[in-house]
Amino acid sequence: MSSSASPAVLHRALWLAFIVQVIASFAVELPYPYWAGWLPAIAAMILGVGLSRTARSRAMAATRATVEVAPPVTGRWSALNSPADRTPSHGTHQLGQTYAIDVTREDEAQPRPAFAWLWPVVRRSEDFPAFDAPLLAVADATVVHAEDGQRDHLSRNSPAALLYLLLIESAARSLAGARRITGNHLVLDLGDGTYAMYAHLKRGSLVVRAGDRVHVGQELARCGNSGNSTEPHVHFQLMDGPDLNTASGVPFTWRGVGVPKNGETFEVPRDSVYSA
């Protein structure tokens, strides 16, 4: 592990120490004053602010020219959390997410389930048209990281499920580190110091492994619902390094598509996009 990632590990450890002692306090009397138990949380909050500022400064200093790549999907999709509307697109510069985008598939034959205000609380991944959609290489590249052992969970697109995600699941995943947030994911080295990351892949769907050389348009994996995800979708971003803990985001544009805005539906015809 690189030394630059150590503060992030310490941040998670401090929150974990605070949570463990809170749980323990219900069963035993802790051997120190009440106020001392808050010290790990206070330290974690201070460190968290520092990490956010460092990530922002690193992102500003690492501003790069926009890189054009092919889209990672084909067919009809719509955009969420797009850098065309704001940066950082996901509300943070951490984990190289400054210019990240989420896209979900639109299919008239299998409409995407709407947000359920009352029922059902959760849905199966198979109910969403994005699930199991092929994900393609955006350029000729080398695979530097690939994992797909994490499970695809149920959707989080109802008030109860979303509350669980925000208050419990997201916090637990943040404590566990980047790979639990991204879920199954893939990192490609595109050359010239640019890396592509695909997150929330379907469990067991990878057809490549680290060290493989891939070509633009080649199928790499399938869309899933692993990691910190509300429903099956593709999270895609470009970065200036392969390590999510230290990378800064790189702006992108998709050949033939551009950068779709939030809610914008776009079509990717395979032949015209990947023949370049």
Structural class of the secondary structure composition?
Answer: alpha+beta
What is the radius of gyration computed over CA atoms, rounded to a whole number of angstroms?
20 Å
Low-confidence stretches: none
Shape: globular
Distance between the termini: 38 Å
Question: Can you name the CATH architecture of the largest domain?
Answer: Distorted Sandwich
Helix and strand element order: HHEEEEEHHEEEEEEEEH
Q: Topology of this protein?
A:
Elements: H1 6-25, H2 39-61, E1 67-69, E2 75-80, E3 101-105, E4 134-136, E5 141-147, H3 159-176, H4 178-182, E6 185-191, E7 194-199, E8 213-214, E9 219-222, E10 234-239, E11 249-250, E12 252-254, E13 265-268, H5 270-274
Parallel strand pairs: 1-12
Antiparallel strand pairs: 2-3, 2-13, 3-10, 4-9, 5-6, 5-8, 6-7, 7-10, 10-11
Summarize the structure.
With 276 residues, the protein is of the alpha+beta class. The chain has five helices and 13 strands.
Structure, described:
With 276 residues, the chain is of the alpha+beta class. The protein contains five helices and 13 strands. It is globular.
